[in-house]
Design a protein that fits this description.
about 325 residues; alpha+beta; 9 helices; 11 strands; about 20% strand
């Protein structure tokens, strides 16, 4: 079918053009050790909390690796990351520090100028962190439109993100209400039990979950328990980014969980969006999809805030290599001694 977004799909960081013999045609490869790509780095080892990359000697594209070996390490919490920074164990920090740590870095940068006490420069990616609530298909309360809209409205005063498509993504359309005190009509039989899942190692995970839980319980409609991601849950609080900067990539989680009444109109809107060749028409169609998302409330936008990258003295990062979905392109690092 016609799809004006197909080129973006091929250009996403998750896509790779490789020989057809690399992957079986009828079987999903799930072992990370078998991953083969066509980018500037190749995976040489993959563990639960560490991935090691080396420069791909066969790469011939426009963004070659400028650091021959990169280790990406996942730390259990923000405090561990700060300790690693102070001990000189890491050269860069991305999506790992909580808001209190960023505040401490603010003060150090104000005092020192360009570097923190442990010798890191900070680069700010405006609006690069996006939090949304996703209802799970198996959730019993998630099948109730009243419950979904109560969750949507109970978080209105906290909302800093007004659509499932964040600005400045082309096609963003302000649709979800922000601020104020909406009238919440709590149905008989309340409070209902909800399980809210969060990724425990994500920055501010505990505080964010506590805020969402407090707002939902203050409404009188819910009693919320917080569980780790991967456990059975009704709602999941995510800070995932889209694979590219297109609006259609950002609405994908909603298109994957429409209500029964929205399936057909969304299918028609998605088809028309793919066929449209002018920006004005695409933006109009995308705005209508975002309005449907308000009514369905199966994906609820909550917060948008800045993301920070810290780079130790001796290295620099080219911010032009931050990818369209706010992914960190490892080829952007350079050793300057």
């Amino acid at each position: 079918r016609p799809d004006s977004q197909f080129g973006f799909a091929l250009a996403t960081p998750g896509a790779a053009i490789v020989p057809e013999a690399v992957y079986p045609a009828e079987e999903l490869v799930t072992d990370p050790a078998e991953a083969v790509g066509s980018g500037p780095y190749r995976v040489v080892s993959f563990g639960a909390d560490r991935v090691v990359y080396e420069a791909n000697e066969h790469y011939t594209g426009d963004t070659p690796a400028r650091v021959p070996r990169v280790e990406v390490v996942v730390y259990p919490d923000s405090a561990s990351v700060e300790e690693a920074m102070q001990a000189g164990e890491v050269d860069a920090v991305w999506r790992a520090l909580n808001s209190q740590a960023h505040t401490r870095m603010d003060r150090q940068l104000e005092t020192n100028g360009e570097l923190t006490d442990s010798g890191f420069a900070r680069l700010t990616i405006t609006g690069g962190r996006v939090h949304r609530l996703l209802w799970q298909e198996s959730s019993e309360p998630g099948g109730d439109p009243v419950a979904r809209r109560l969750v949507r409205d109970a978080l209105q005063d906290q909302r800093t993100l007004d659509s499932i498509v964040p600005p400045p993504v082309p096609g963003h359309h302000s649709s979800f209400a922000q601020g104020g005190q909406p009238e919440l009509v709590v149905p008989p039989g309340s409070p209902r039990r909800l399980r809210l899942a969060v990724e425990p190692t994500a920055p501010d995970a505990t505080d964010n979950a506590s805020t969402v839980r407090s707002r939902l319980e203050e409404s009188g409609a819910f009693r919320v328990s917080v569980v780790d991601a991967g456990e059975a849950a009704d709602l999941v609080l995510t800070d995932d980014t889209a694979p590219n900067s297109t609006a259609i990539a950002w609405v994908r989680p909603y298109l994957d969980r429409p209500t029964h009444t929205s399936v057909l109109p969304l299918m028609l809107l998605r088809s028309a969006y793919g066929e449209a060749t002018d920006e004005e028409t695409r933006n109009d169609l995308m705005g209508r999809i975002q309005e449907f998302a308000v009514s369905d409330a199966t994906v609820v936008p909550v917060w948008q805030s800045d993301e920070h990258l810290y780079v130790r003295q001796g290295y620099v990062y080219d911010t032009g290599e931050i990818q369209p979905g706010w992914q960190l392109g490892l080829w952007g690092f350079r050793n300057v001694g």
